[in-house]
Specification:
The chain has 326 residues and is α/β, with parallel strands linked by helices. It has helices spanning 41-48, 118-140, 158-169, 184-190, 199-202, 222-230, 254-258, 273-286, 289-294, 301-312, and strands at 2-7, 14-19, 30-39, 64-72, 82-86, 101-104, 109-111, 149-152, 174-178, 194-197, 213-218, 232-240, 262-265, 296-300, 319-323. The chain folds into two domains: 2-112 and 295-323, Alpha-Beta Complex (Quinone Oxidoreductase, Chain A, domain 1), CATH 3.90.180; 127-265, Rossmann fold. A hairpin with a 6-residue loop joins strand 1 and strand 2 (14-19). It is globular and about 60 Å long.
């Protein structure tokens, strides 16, 4: 089979498309013939060796894939079933989706919703699934569209783009924060009511600022997350799901104890299966195909390594789908 193989011999790191013997596939009770994978931020880190994401060598990267079950010893799946995988350490400690086949635990798989093709599922991927988990968490805490604006940071990224589209479809007024103001029209097409420059949020700010947002979906972290919390209205909810600016959180407790703000962490890697199925079901019911196409670019395996480098320097907008058979 063909795939991207990451190696780290004494001579240095390498990421290359190569022929891989299927006998090397790791243990698992389901083998999947992959149609499409994606490039996410974590994939960018792995493919550029920018961070110690990969913890076993050699590694096939790719934290997502969608395809068809080829063989199965798992009770929930049979050959011919179409499935999705997101997270579970795949692409980090277990061979992932940037190859033509994968062998994984059946417990990690989610049935493909009938409304989606495998390509559409990967146009969403972990980014879209994470965005939906974030929206669901805000809803669980009672944030409704009549309570005020929702801020989405990192809005031209994968999580941000899908979050903007979902929230707009549900009738929320969305304020999109981005470092790419030239992409304001793109964000407006996804449903953003207002686009602001990320510089307004990315520098150190006051612990409490003017109340504005009823909710926040933040994929950036660091000072951006701190300022988002400081501008969240009384009783609002901030869903934190990323760290593009940094892992640090140089904040005070003021927004939480003086305004009752909730900071909710969103984990997509180890989320239980029932929550995953619910998120994918909601995505199938609430994503407009035209918006999904607008935010998606499709590449072949041979272009994925270069695209990963572009992703890490902010040159990619929206979602990158990888056709592993192209």
């Amino acid at each position: 089979m063909k795939g991207i193989l990451l190696t780290k011999p004494e001579s240095g790191f390498s990421a290359a498309v190569t022929e891989i013997d299927e006998a090397q596939l790791p243990e698992g009770d389901v083998t999947v013939r992959i149609d499409f994978s994606t490039l996410n931020y974590k994939d960018g880190l792995a493919l550029t060796n920018r961070s110690p994401v990969v913890r076993k060598w050699p590694m096939v990267p790719g934290i997502d894939f969608a395809g068809t079950v080829e063989t199965s010893a798992h009770a929930d799946f049979k050959p011919g079933d179409q499935v999705i995988l997101n997270g579970w350490g795949v692409g980090e400690t277990h061979w992932g989706g940037l190859a033509q086949k994968a062998r994984v635990k059946g417990d990690w798989l989610v049935p493909l919703p009938s409304k989606f093709s495998t390509r559409q599922a990967m146009a969403l991927g972990t980014a879209g699934y994470t965005a939906m988990l974030s929206v669901m968490r805000m809803e669980a805490f009672g944030v409704t569209k009549d309570q005020g604006e929702i801020l989405v940071t990192g809005a031209t990224g994968g999580v941000g783009s899908v979050a903007v589209a979902i929230l707009a479809e549900w009738g929320y007024r969305v304020v999109a924060s981005t470092g790419k103001m030239a992409e304001a029209d793109y964000l407006a097409q996804l449903g953003a009511a207002e686009v602001i420059d990320r510089a307004a949020l990315s520098a150190p700010g006051k612990p409490l600022q003017k109340e504005r947002f009823a909710g926040v979906i933040d994929s950036v972290g660091s000072h951006t997350l701190v300022n988002a919390c400081a501008q969240t209205r009384y009783g609002g909810v901030v869903a934190a799901c990323g760290l593009a600016q940094g892992m640090d959180f140089p904040a005070t407790v003021a927004p939480f104890i003086l305004r009752g703000v909730t900071l909710a962490g969103i984990d997509s890697v180890m989320a239980p299966k029932a929550l995953r199925v619910k998120a994918w079901s909601k995505l199938a019911c609430n994503i407009v195909p035209a918006k999904l196409d607008r935010m998606t670019k499709v590449l072949g395996l041979s272009d994925a390594v270069v695209a990963a480098a572009d992703l890490m320097i902010g040159k990619i907008r929206g979602r990158v789908v990888v056709d592993v058979n192209a």
